[in-house]
Amino acid sequence: MTAERVLAGLDPDQRRAVTAPAGPVCILAGAGTGKTRAITHRIAYRTLNGEISPRHILAVTFTARAAAEMRARLTALGAGRVQARTFHAAALRQVRYFAPRLLEGRAMPELVESKARLVALAANRVGIRADRTAARDLAGEIEWAKSSLVEPGEYVVAAAKALREPPYEAAKVGEVFAAYEALKRRQGVIDFEDMLRAAVWGIEEHSDVAEQVRSQYRHFVVDEYQDVNPLQQRLLDAWLGGRDDITVVGDASQTIYSFTGATSAYLVDFPRLRRDAVVVRLVRDYRSTPQVVGLANAVIKQARGTEAKLRLELVGQRPPGAEPDLKIFPDEPAEAVAVARRCRDLIAAGTPASEIAVLFRTNAQSEAYEKALAELEVPYVVRGAERFFERTEVRQAMVALRSAVRSTPGETPLVQAVVEALSATGWAPDQPPPGGAQREQWEALAALVALAEEYARTPDLLPLGQAGAVQHDVSLAAFCAELAHRAEQQHAPTVEGVTLASLHSAKGLEWDAVFLVGLAEGTLPTTYAKTPEQLEEERRLLYVGVTRARQWLWLSYGQSRSPGGRARRPCRFLPQLGTTRTGLEKASVAGGSRKAVNRRSTVVSCRICGATLMAGADRKLGRCPTCPSDLDEELYERLLAWRASTAAEQKVPAYVVFTDATIVAIAERKPATPPELLAIAGIGPRKLGQYGAAVFALVGGESLAEPASENSEN
Questions:
Q1: What is the DSSP string of 487-539?
Q2: DSSP labels, 584-628
Q3: Where is the UvrD-like helicase ATP-binding domain (predicted)?
Q4: Cβ contact 372:339 at 8 Å
Q5: Each residue of 73-92: pLDDT tens digit?
Q6: Mean pLDDT lowest for which of 74-78, 377-381, 466-470?
Q7: Distance of CA 454 to the CA centre of its chain
Q8: Tens digit of pLDDT for each residue in 395-439?
Q9: In this structure, are residues 653 and 682 in contact, taking their beta carbons and an 8 Å threshold?
Q10: Binding residues for ATP
Q11: Quick one: CA dihedral 173, 177, 178, 182, positive or negative?
Q12: What is the Cα Rg of the chain in Å?
């Protein structure tokens, strides 16, 4: 491999990033624009042309998977000796190497993999009985504080400034933080943040260590720079030691981890703090179709705040594809069933199950999709979380529900019985606790209550092979049996399947087909997002979800959580419906597609699945394009022949009489009366008067040889 060959196949912006001179370089790379390609080719180009030595480069990123991918690409480019590691792996390597010198011959302290046990002990010492979930939340607050360079005595003020919602009163959390630090010292152990701090301390306080580290690493590359926290930035500054040969790459519009201490401020301020920095924008999107790209641009176009200063407008490079589907369902169970059916159809048509993803805001939403996919025998895998019925709090809740069967009077309404049984475990309806893990646990149990509401409304059943409906048992015992059945269905082992994941877990991944579900106010954005900054992060979550799709994108929400429940509004970040074009159609034009469809303000629902239809052609058909057609082929041929002769007689194009979609709709729906014909979108009183008699005759079986009207629509 030669330096010139490394440049082959790069677009002009990527080439500019790769060949930028030594010094500070900031690559603003939108989703799907080839950021990893740009930075690995930059490293390879500089090493192969002899500008720098591979042993003097350190490339850092945030996940072991990303680091491994970077190493593999560098090896393929002939730069396999370059170090590519996560921040933690790089710091651990250095601390271990220098430990004998820094610790005066003592061994490096043991590294604690998880804080939960020590945090629970620390909480107990200050009077808090923290279970596993509460300990996770407290550990999360401590990690945020340490990553933000906040000491225990500074926590209360810092948490208030950052608008944190700690799991307990801030002063108590500060006490737990202090007790945790004391416990670690007493036991002679360190955590991951201590390790990063130790690496910083070793360089800042020991000139010999600083000299050796800086002699080894002279050129730095930082991936996903929008996710750097203050502690990681301080370590990076220590490595640099005032030098400026650093390349950073990031996308402010994908900043979605601020709750962990990550901040895009370093990316935003990079050009200002380094006046001679070269800034390159990568906007050519090679991942997604222009239709998906257009929607992504429309979502992020309305962004406000600091991150919006570096907003990129992507330009789709792939051939045009299908318009994104926007679906509205009566409730979440109906939404889940429709998604599962479409997954099944995509797999049957040749899309690998592993190239399909269902993405949602919270892990508690997964249950409905696990159930719907399991019932259709569609394999699936849950990424970044346990399956719903394998979660500890759900298993404990099911035990509590079974125990309550014996003590609950038979006449107690099901939902009331479930709420009372869960309340006995400490769960309180309408009172979600602060703290991410505890809130997620609360939402999982709230999902069980929603299941009870759905189960209680289920109509009487009609078993296969039996005559007459069977009365639906809505007792607590029957509901427990239903939960056990669902758990059994969803525990089937899978090797490859449809991915179920939260939007946070999906970052950095991509699929051919993506379903973004539950896009309703209160879910996305979550009700817990109250400040403008928090709401903007919710918008960026949707943007990340949209940009995961390569070819096919579905966006949907249920108007209520359960059948008959309270109606909800659609996600505020979805493009608004216009009077002449839907927001999705406008977005597609912005992304490169020129197709536009007029729409009426009336709501048209699919007569097959009940989803609200947005696209003009779908509204005319009266069904989703993916729902089964009941086309009368013989009637369809006669309608085409009649339209051709009528158009020829009137000397107008055939579509002026009726469009193709209208002809298909008539052949499917077979209107026999004026109201039925008028119900087809695109047919008004004028066309009813012109062509109604002919249409009714054709539907009735007649074959018309003569045109039905002497008047042109024009």
A1: HHHHT---SS-EEEEEHHHHTT--EEEEEE---BTBTTTBTT--SHHHHHHHH
A2: HHHHHHHTT--------SS-EE-TTT-PEE-SHHHHHHTS-TTSP
A3: 8-289
A4: yes
A5: 999 898 888 999 999 999 99
A6: 466-470
A7: 26
A8: 888 888 888 888 888 788 888 888 888 888 888 887 777 766 677
A9: no
A10: 29-36
A11: positive
A12: 30
Among 240, 268, 210, which Cα is nearest to 23's?
A: 240
State the pairing for strand pair 25-29/246-250. Answer: parallel
3-state helix, strand, coil in the chain (%, to 5): 50, 10, 35
- What are 4's two structure tokens? 């010139």
Q: For 68-195, list the strands marked E by DSSP.
A: 83-86, 110-111, 189-190
Q: Which residues of 477-488 are buried (b: 16+ CB within 10 A; e: fewer)?
A: bebbebbeebbe
| Binding residue ranges | 29-36
Q: What is the 3-state secondary structure (H, E, C) of 227-278?
A: HCCHHHHHHHHHHHCCCCCEEEEECHHHCCCHHHCCCCHHHHHHHHHCCCCE
**Residue at token pair 């973004």:** 516
Confidence band (pLDDT; 50, 70, 90) for 611? low
Which long-range contacts link 91-97 to residues 24+ away (Cβ below 8 Å)? 91/195, 91/196, 91/198, 91/199, 91/235, 92/195, 94/199, 94/202, 94/213, 95/195, 95/198, 95/199, 95/202
